[in-house]
Amino acid sequence: MKTMPCAMALLAIAVVLSVSACSNGAAMQQSVRLTTPGADDGVVCPSVEEKGAGPKAVYVDIQYAVDGTPSAVPNKCYVDNGTTVTWRDPANRTTQFNLVFSNAGLTGTRGGALQAAQAAERYKVAAVIQGRPGDNYKYGIQANGKVVDPAIIIKK
């Protein structure tokens, strides 16, 4: 008779541990969640991995060569899990651009694309980046019929 309550207690503990493990795993899933660009884009995204907690909001400037080829400045962007990244074109040049993530499942959008929208005097797109330390998010910037491939990296 005493084995039944012990077995039930062990089962209850197993269920609690299993549920908590599921919730921890979900928090660490990779995602690039589209958000509304804020009035303050934060600070320029660090191009090298820095120790300690980084800024919660950063930006990547989209620049254009004479032939219209886009580029990201910085080309590599190191962020903490949960950082909001805003990509923006120059204030003096309003060019529509798209970001296309190679892993389309990250964005929850068709083909992994995030389309910039005009905000004030420039085009912008913002997303919250979530993932595990060391995750590398490959994406392309499409503008003027050309594509370049920078990266977002979650700091270790």
Structural class: alpha+beta
Termini distance? 51 Å
Helix percentage: 10-25%
Discrete helix count: 1
Q: Examine the coordinates and then state which fold CATH places here, giving the name of the CATH topology.
A: Immunoglobulin-like
Q: Mind telling me the CATH class?
A: Mainly Beta
Q: How do the SSEs run, as a string of H and E?
A: HEEEEEEEEEEEEE
Q: State the shape.
A: globular
Low-confidence stretches: 3-27
The count of strands amounts to 13
Nearest-integer average pLDDT:
80
Round the Cα radius of gyration to an integer and report it: 20 Å
Strand proportion, as a percent range, falls in 35-45%
CATH superfamily: Cupredoxins -  blue copper proteins
Count of the separate structural domains? 1
Q: What is the CATH-assigned architecture?
A: Sandwich
Biggest sheet architecture: 7 strands, mixed
Keywords for this entry:
156 residues, alpha+beta, Immunoglobulin-like, 7-stranded mixed β-sheet, 1 helix, 16% helix, globular, disordered N terminus
What would you say this structure looks like, in words?
By secondary structure, this protein is α+β, with helices and mostly antiparallel strands. The chain is built from 1 helix and 13 strands. The chain has one helix at residues 3-27; strands at residues 31-35, 43-44, 57-64, 70-73, 76-79, 83-88, 98-101, 113-115, 117-119, 122-130, 136-143, 146-148, 151-154. Strands 1, 2, 3, 4, 6, 9 and 10 form a 7-stranded mixed sheet that branches. It is globular and about 35 Å long. Mean pLDDT is 80; it is low at 3-27.
